[in-house]
Design brief:
The complex is a heterodimer of chains A (113) and B (220). Helices cover 26% and strands 31% of the residues of chain A. Chain A is an alpha+beta fold and 113 residues long. Chain A has one domain (3-112): hypothetical protein PF0899 fold, CATH 3.30.2320.80. Chain A has a 3-stranded mixed beta sheet, covered by helices on one side. Chain A has a 3-stranded antiparallel beta sheet with strand order 4-3-5, with no helix packed on it. In chain A, helix 1 (3-20) packs across helix 2. Chain A is elongated. By secondary structure, chain B is of the alpha/beta class. Chain B has a single domain (13-219), classed as Rossmann fold, CATH 3.40.50. Chain B has helices spanning 13-28, 44-55, 72-79, 97-103, 148-151, 153-157, 177-187, 204-219; strands spanning 3-10, 32-38, 61-67, 84-88, 114-118, 135-141, 161-165, 192-195. A 7-stranded parallel beta sheet of chain B has the order 4-3-5-2-6-7-8, sandwiched between helices. In chain B, strand 7, helix 7 (177-187) and strand 8 form a beta-alpha-beta unit. Chain B is globular and about 70 Å long. Classes of the chains: A alpha+beta (113), B alpha/beta (220). The interface between A and B is large, with 43 and 35 residues. Strand 6 of chain A pairs antiparallel with strand 1 (3-10) of chain B.
């Protein structure tokens, strides 16, 4: 359900930046969304079509760049995609790993006319 | 002509900014606040009630309850003699900073030392939405299973304390504590953890003493 709040924020941020350059229309919104951010593209798109109506962002295309989860082993340096059963390093089996990618949740840029 | 405008802005920045303002308001009133999160059925409300009972007379307490629609939890807190405010999220799966900003003035903050916020029962998204409290606390519980850090890493990463509730059920439920704690350690190294049972009271005093120490340290 929280995609409504997320979508509203995407709209607010996009409109604020578009207004700064007196844009007439927002054409594309480029989003970067990591695996750990628990945001579902389809839900964002669903809400988008409703809430962008009547704004200069109406009809704008949402481009989702999905970032896979990545962990990096602190012992051997291997970067790997964790499963949802274990986070240990698949090479040296060390449990000393840290999340290095997948927490992104940002508006990267917009294309305007 | 199409023009690209670089933005690079966190999507939840508006919420984060509001959370900063809430923290400032809490600090001005010299109130410590904690945000309690867990899946439905982990024992949030009973742990809070037991915590309130244990801290009665030691700290002045208030409660904010997030819930989808009912006020059952708030009624329990009021029955325990605490000022309590209900936030009905109307279907939203988490509390956000704006909801807190509305609810907080309804508590007599100036007369309180500690505010306990009970978030909506959900292991997916509440940790993404900062609400301005000083710490986030996650309640895990034994019957949920030992794989939850691996399934819901965002929640385990986003907290400053972890309670493992219902340890009295360990003899009856398959739960590999080493496997569980390994996942926690990877996501949140050195996380302070309190194994306890809100039902039997086992381990409760370690948690409540720690909480009192946090509040006292802040209010120094």
């Amino acid at each position: 359900m929280h995609e409504l709040a997320v979508t509203q924020s995407i709209l607010d941020i996009s409109l604020r930046h578009a207004e700064k350059v007196n844009a007439k229309q927002i054409v594309t919104i480029n989003l970067v969304i990591g695996r750990f951010s628990s945001v579902v593209d389809d839900s964002v798109q669903f809400y988008w079509d409703m809430i962008a109506e009547g704004t200069i962002a109406q009809g704008a295309r949402l481009c989702f760049e999905r970032i896979a989860a990545e962990m990096t082993c602190q012992e051997c340096g291997l970067a790997f995609e964790p499963t949802d059963e274990t986070f240990a390093c698949p090479k040296c089996l060390s449990p000393k790993v840290r999340i290095t990618k997948g927490e992104e949740l940002r508006v990267e840029s917009i294309d305007v006319e | 002509m199409t023009q690209r405008i670089p933005i690079v802005e966190n999507i939840l920045s508006a919420n984060d900014n509001m959370a900063v303002r809430i923290r400032e308001a809490l600090d001005r009133a010299n109130v410590y606040a904690i945000n309690i999160m867990a899946s439905p059925g982990a024992g949030k409300t009973s742990l809070i009630i037991k915590t309130l009972e244990a801290l009665k007379g030691r700290l002045r307490l208030g409660v904010i309850e997030g819930d989808l629609a009912t006020s059952i939890d708030t009624d329990k807190a009021i029955a325990a003699g605490m000022p309590a405010v209900q936030i009905n999220t109307g279907g939203e799966c988490h509390l956000d900073a704006v909801m807190l900003a509305d609810a907080l003035p309804k508590l007599p903050l100036i007369n309180l030392d500690l505010v306990i916020v009970e978030n909506v029962g959900n292991l997916v998204c509440p940790a993404n939405f900062k609400i301005g409290t000083h710490i986030n606390v996650l309640i895990a519980s034994i019957p949920e299973g030992d794989d939850k850090p691996y399934k819901y890493p965002g929640m385990y990463k986003g907290v400053q304390a972890l309670i493992i509730n219902k340890v009295d059920l360990l003899p009856y439920v398959p739960f590999n504590m080493d496997y569980f704690q390994l996942g926690v350690e990877i996501l949140n190294p050195g996380l302070v953890t309190f194994p306890l049972s809100a039902k039997t009271g086992e381990g409760m005093n370690v948690w409540t003493d720690w909480l009192v120490a946090q509040v006292k340290q802040k209010n120094k």
